[in-house]
User: Which sequence fits this backbone?
């Protein structure tokens, strides 16, 4: 790797689409934290030592570790013997350093109400809520479920758990009551924190009502703490349900942070895998916080004194955990946090927010970018976006067209773009440019970060130096998942069995002849809809759960805006009529069972499904049908005629917008 990772010519316009190179602009480079290769060089020499230096530089420890990394494949421990408190690192130390008045969050509600929350405010509220949790019997090692909209109480609740050494399990507000109940039961949480509702696209969307349905089936929950956000009517169960505004102001703001083991469970976050049952991904404290602080600082070239950083994700997903809550707060950053959707009240809400808060760093998803493209350049053009200096992308492969649009119309041609590849399981960014050091190419996440070892391998697990294959990670990393809650075997089986000695990410990837990584999307039974992971099998079991459905096969088909759209092939039990009405009913059913993100875009009724002789549904074939491609070899089909029939039906199937 040279100084700029790769060289490029000066006239970017002359490159063909795949081959455009964008070196860091000179003025960006001059002010950036990393303009050369020294971090890569240091990590190459001794990756454990490199991470130990980051842990020592970026965090405050109460007790030193005796072992940097204990690796008993596939189980890792980092900074063994070390003690720290995550909430102290995110709050107390900044206040103690004289930054109590610094803004932690410029929060903006969808209706336009705002709150300015300083580090001192946040510490005060976190201590109070930690005391509330203690009073409710929450102790170190317990689990607390959180089901909240994007309001300040969400990071407060998370940090209060961290302060006590209780693990939080945040469930995205868009998930259904059933999904919430499953997650609570798997975690055996004692307390649920929720709200009456939240604001979304101009409406007050209820949460407490769904929480009530869930809690009817969750014997472990002793109390439900409810934040009043929308003011809508809710039913409070005497003795079980308590209002946040009754408890928190009355609680003491004294709650000393106790040192926790580096490997103390910090949180569970459930994610879809290749089976119907979501997996509780486990993240612990010291290694996780080290890597999220490191990546947040260097990938976003954070200058905490001057930057206003905005990650436009929802905290219900890992992106929000790592890059709205833990990374920015550990680094003492000033962030924007926004409750609602980008199209309320107008399609320029994001640009309006950027202009008003003078946002300097924006981190969002390709689906959002493609949506903005559809809405047209007149929306960003109405606003002054000159404060922006860096753009980020996450959650799905970004196509070069969207990358270029983002670069030109949002970044004004001057902002580097960091396309960051990572997963719920990796906890933090793994493959990404360093914006002052790396020459980017539109659509490529470029290279593994310093301290990270990735390799693309072929079917047999042999490394591919140039060309396509499967993305694997070959060494432990500090923020790696420590397992699947309650199921160590599933952890080994899911991530460490496909290729000997390697973590398999589930993603396809191509390495070009300059060594750049081009992520190609999932190669397993996981779909990526608007950057949200949805399991095909989970949707299939929700469909089969409907009384009229005999069998279902679900595939993700390419979609211009959402990356993939869910297409369901359904066979009905005898005596039932296929039709539009039932199609709608099935979509609703999936939405109720899992949540709106999992609702199929298209339902295709068919009399049979294409299967191999061993009875396995041929998903690839169905994906081809769904995407309107020509079919491949059908000789392994039990009944080739089925495919013709499916294809005919697919052409006629109604699609939901
Ligand atoms: C995909 C989100 C291409 C990938 C942080 C991965 C990406 C899955 C990128 C994880 C990217 C995420 N380029 N694909 N920059 N970032 N992905 O767990 O398929 O919600 O496996 O974590 O999103 O999704 P998850």
Assistant:
């Amino acid at each position: 790797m040279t100084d700029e990772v790769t060289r490029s010519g000066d006239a970017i316009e002359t490159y063909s689409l795949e081959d455009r190179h964008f070196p860091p602009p000179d003025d960006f480079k001059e002010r950036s934290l990393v303009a050369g290769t020294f971090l890569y060089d240091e990590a190459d020499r001794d990756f454990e030592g490199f991470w130990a230096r980051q842990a020592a530089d970026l965090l405050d420890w109460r007790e030193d570790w005796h072992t940097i990394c204990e690796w008993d494949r596939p189980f890792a421990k980092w900074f063994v013997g070390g003690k720290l408190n995550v909430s102290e690192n995110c709050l107390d130390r900044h206040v103690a350093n004289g930054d109590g008045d610094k803004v932690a969050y410029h929060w903006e509600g969808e209706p336009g109400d705002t709150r300015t929350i300083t580090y001192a405010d946040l510490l005060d509220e976190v201590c109070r809520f930690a005391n509330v949790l203690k009073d409710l019997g929450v102790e170190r090692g317990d689990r607390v479920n959180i089901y909240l909209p994007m309001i300040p109480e969400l990071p407060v609740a998370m940090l209060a758990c961290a302060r006590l050494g209780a693990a939080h399990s945040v469930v995205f507000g868009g998930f259904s009551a059933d999904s919430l109940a499953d997650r609570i039961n798997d975690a055996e949480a004692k307390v649920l924190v929720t709200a009456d509702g939240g604001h979304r696209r101009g409406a007050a969307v209820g949460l407490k009502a769904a929480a009530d349905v869930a809690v009817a089936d969750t014997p472990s929950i002793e109390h439900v703490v409810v934040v009043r956000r929308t003011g809508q009517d809710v039913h409070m169960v005497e003795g079980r349900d308590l209002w946040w505004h009754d408890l928190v102001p009355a609680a003491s703001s004294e709650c000393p942070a106790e040192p926790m083991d580096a490997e103390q469970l910090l949180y569970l976050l459930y994610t879809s895998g290749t089976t119907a049952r979501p997996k509780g991904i486990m993240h612990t404290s010291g290694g996780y916080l080290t890597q999220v602080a490191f990546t947040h600082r260097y990938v976003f070239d954070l200058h905490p004194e001057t930057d206003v950083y905005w990650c436009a994700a929802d905290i219900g997903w890992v992106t929000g955990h790592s890059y709205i809550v833990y990374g920015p707060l550990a680094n003492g950053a000033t962030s924007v946090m926004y409750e609602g959707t980008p199209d309320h009240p107008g399609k320029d809400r994001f640009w309006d927010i950027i202009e008003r808060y003078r946002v300097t760093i924006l981190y969002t998803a390709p689906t959002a970018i493609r949506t903005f493209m559809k809405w047209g350049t007149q929306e960003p053009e109405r606003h002054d976006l000159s404060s922006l200096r860096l753009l980020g992308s996450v959650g799905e492969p970004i196509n070069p067209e969207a990358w270029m649009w983002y670069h030109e119309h949002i970044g004004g041609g001057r902002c580097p773009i960091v396309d960051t590849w990572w997963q719920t399981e990796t906890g933090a960014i793994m493959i990404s440019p360093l914006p002052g050091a790396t020459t980017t190419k539109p659509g490529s996440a470029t290279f593994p970060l310093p301290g990270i070892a990735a390799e693309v391998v072929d079917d047999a697990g042999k490394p591919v130096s140039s060309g396509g294959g499967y993305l694997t990670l070959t060494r432990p990393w500090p923020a790696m998942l420590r397992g699947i809650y309650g199921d160590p075997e599933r952890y080994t089986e899911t991530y460490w069995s496909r290729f000997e000695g390697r973590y398999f990410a589930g993603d396809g990837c191509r390495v070009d002849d300059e060594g750049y990584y081009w992520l190609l999307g999932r190669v397993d039974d996981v779909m990526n809809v608007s950057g949200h992971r949805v399991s095909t099998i989970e949707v299939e079991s929700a469909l089969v759960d409907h009384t009229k459905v005999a069998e279902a096969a679900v595939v993700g088909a390419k979609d211009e805006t959402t990356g993939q759209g869910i297409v369901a092939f359904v066979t009905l039990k005898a005596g039932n009529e296929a039709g539009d009405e039932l199609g709608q009913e099935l979509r609703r059913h999936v939405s109720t069972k899992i949540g709106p993100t999992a609702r199929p875009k298209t339902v295709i009724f068919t009399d049979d499904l294409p299967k191999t002789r061993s009875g396995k549904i041929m998903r690839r074939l169905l994906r081809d049908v769904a995407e309107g491609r020509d079919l491949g070899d059908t000789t392994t089909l039990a009944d080739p005629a089925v495919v013709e029939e499916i294809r005919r039906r697919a052409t006629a199937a109604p699609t939901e917008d």
Notes: Residues 1-17 have pLDDT under 50 and may be disordered. The pocket of WTA is lined by residues 271, 317-319, 394-397, 419-424, 445, 505-507, 519, 521-522, 528, 533 (CB under 6 Å). Residues 346 and 579 are 36 Å apart (CA to CA). The first strand starts at residue 67 and ends at 72.
